[in-house]
Write a structure and sequence with these properties.
The protein has a three-stranded antiparallel beta sheet with strand order 1-2-3, with no helix packed on it. α2 crosses α3 (about 65-75), α3 (about 65-75) crosses α4 and α4 packs across α5 (about 110-115). It is mainly alpha-helical. It folds into two domains: about 1-30, no CATH class; about 40-120, Arc Repressor Mutant, subunit A, CATH 1.10.10. Helix content is about 45%, strand content about 5%. It is built from five helices and three strands, in the order βββααααα.
């Protein structure tokens, strides 16, 4: 079994492990080895966003990166923002289709929800909204009082 030795530069000297000069070969622990993830392509991020219907956390988990990484890609690539909006729109369409199915099936909660949200203009609302026409314009006057002591 052979151990791979990696030398790191610390200031003006090289070490195989923190505190151990290069002359003494000491294998580094796996936690000390710095590895870089391969760079993601915008296409891979787009596929993950479509797969998870715009859910950033789920897309990040699939890609093996943090949510912040996906957010940075969304900021960097405007097309990814469009992909996410499209995926969220598809999710909304799916939810609306299921809601219609529930209303057709007679689900009382779904019917109540539709009437409270989409039927407001027909009077299906829990709060009463009134429009009042004022005969004369209302004038409000404010007086600003500065009670701070004068600077000397």
């Amino acid at each position: 079994m052979t151990a791979k030795l990696t030398a790191k530069r610390f200031g003006d000297r090289f070490e195989t492990a923190p505190g151990v000069p290069c002359g003494k070969l000491v294998p580094m622990a796996l936690s000390q080895v710095v590895t870089r993830r391969p760079r993601l392509s915008a296409q891979a991020v787009a596929q993950a966003l479509r797969l998870h219907r715009g859910n950033i956390s789920a897309a990040a988990q699939t890609l093996g990166v943090s949510r912040m990484t996906v957010h940075r890609y969304l900021q960097r690539y405007p097309t990814l923002r469009l992909v996410r909006e499209e995926a969220l729109g598809e999710l909304l369409d799916l939810a609306e289709a299921k809601l219609v199915e529930l209303v057709k099936a007679g689900d009382l909660r779904a019917i109540t929800f539709v009437l409270r949200t989409l039927g407001r203009d027909r009077g299906y609302s829990e709060r009463m909204e009134h429009q009042v026409e004022a005969i004369a314009p209302l004038v409000v006057t404010f007086e600003v009082v500065d009670d701070r002591p004068a600077a000397s």
